[in-house]
Design goal:
By secondary structure, this protein is of the alpha+beta class. Helix content is 17%, strand content 35%. It has three helices and ten strands; from the N terminus they run H-H-E-H-E-E-E-E-E-E-E-E-E. The model has no long low-confidence stretch (mean pLDDT 81).
Length: 151
């Protein structure tokens, strides 16, 4: 009986692992946490505020900062919700070796307390910097292709 159970388990495990082509494993490793060492430049924290655009915001706009040189996002401060009436209680916080001139966000239109869901695509925004304060005017942003267009 033990041999029969062992043989069945081996058969199940073998068939589960057998595929026509091996599935590649993707490993994401960010070098951004070591940019200070790589560039020799000092990282500084920047804080971004948003000037809403009613057409883009709609009932609400959820933005997720996408890391890109010279900056990377700081923890929970990379998700920002901008409301339809200019409501914006959250600020983007990023660490940069220099003030960015452009940043990208994954975005989706949603109410403030809506459950997490898949974003729509990329939003590319010019940035104006005043010291370590950044301003992002959403009316100046360019809406990129939706995610399904990348496939």
């Amino acid at each position: 009986m033990k041999k029969l159970i062992a043989a069945l388990l081996f058969s199940i495990i073998s068939s589960a692992n057998a595929t026509d082509a091996p599935t590649p494993r993707v490993s994401i490793f960010s070098t951004s946490t070591d940019w200070q060492a790589v560039t020799g430049l000092t990282l500084n924290e920047y804080r971004g505020t948003f000037v809403p655009d009613k057409k883009l915001v709609g009932r609400g706009l959820v933005l997720y900062y996408l890391d890109g040189f010279p900056c990377y996002g700081l923890g929970s401060w990379v998700r920002v919700w901008v409301g339809p009436n200019g409501e914006n209680h959250e600020h983007l916080r990023i660490a940069c070796v220099a003030a960015p001139t452009e940043i990208k966000f994954a975005y989706r239109n949603a109410l403030r307390d809506a459950d997490e869901a898949t974003t729509t695509g990329i939003l590319t925004c010019p940035v104006s910097a005043h010291g370590r304060e950044l301003t992002i005017e959403l009316s100046d942003c360019t809406v990129g292709p939706d995610w399904d267009e990348y496939k």
